[in-house]
Write a structure and sequence with these properties.
Blueprint (H helix, E strand, L loop, with lengths): L1 E5 L9 H13 L4 E9 L5 E4 L2 E11 L7 H6 L1 H15 L3 E5 H15 L3 E5 L8 H8 L3 E4 L2 H9 L5 E3 L20 E6 L8 H10 L5 E6 L5 H10 L6 E5 L6 H5 L4 E4 L8 H8 L4 E4 L4 H4 L7 E3 L4 H12 L14 H19 L1
Amino acid sequence: MKVLMPALHYWPVIGGIETWTRNIAERLSGKAEIFVVTGKVKNQPKREEKGGVKIWRTSLFTLTNLSASPLIYTFSLLPFIFFKSLLLIKKEKIDLLHCQGFLSSLLGFLLSRLTGLPYLVTVQRLERRGNPLKSLVYRKAALIIAASTAVKRYFEEIGCQNIEILPNGIDLKRFKNLEPKPHQGFIVITVARLEKVKGIEYLIKAIDVLRSNNIELLIIGDGSERKNLENLTRNLVLEKKVRFLGQIPNEKIPEYLVLADCFVLPSLREGFGIAVLEAQAAGLPVIGTKVGGILDLIENGKTGLLVEPGDSQALASAIFKVYSGQRFARPNLEKYSWQNIAQKVYESYLRCRNISS
């Protein structure tokens, strides 16, 4: 079977969907022939084979920031990916398109209309309702993979059929034999894009509520809200309690998780929440909000704590419970191993072909 992925971004670009695409592509390269068409990235070749995956990079501009993609780059590369994909479909006799997110799915929809190929859609974030184009593109997909129960519910509400839940994954080997690093005080850590939707401002305000305790916050990640969050930290005079570490390479994240005593993801909206999964794999007590995919990952009071989104006082209370010694059961994470998920994706490919035939 030959599968083409029209991916707006691919490794070494940093992000949840990029991590998913690379892991699935490389782990399926032994069972299927995988082609990826994506945008140009600084210091990356236009054509290469990596991890058994054949990669083409084509776009008007070249991406230089691996953690942020300007809109002009994103939208200008769409026709380049479309036409390169169309050429490969004809040349390589592609069997199936696997699209990631809406814009990739839009390309899949158009390519499908021209070639008759079925397209499979993977979506890991909660989409906004009320967009008729999105509804059309998703309803025409042969199969939809939703990252969580919440994402599946969205697709059901817009009338999609053939939906299955497959979560994001992690490489469990990276988290084996991790030893907590000795440190003073109590360290809370979060790993997130610094955007409004991640609710980091409420976490900083929670640290302010707890300022009389020996509690420190480490923030890993970058984004458009970083300056505002740093200003908030200064205004609350929390410079000694809140540290911004910036973007850290994903492979180094376990090294930072073992520095902490508690992990918090205070999202206002969340399709999945892979950072929670990684914190659980590192053995940290986890606190999340009652939104989206986080509800699939944390069983309140048993494997962690859940609080209402946008509530600094509730976050502070939950952190204080962990600070005071509350502990939780460690969840079984084997179902999130990339190998298990890749096998299920391959089964989805076969099912997708059966649906379209």
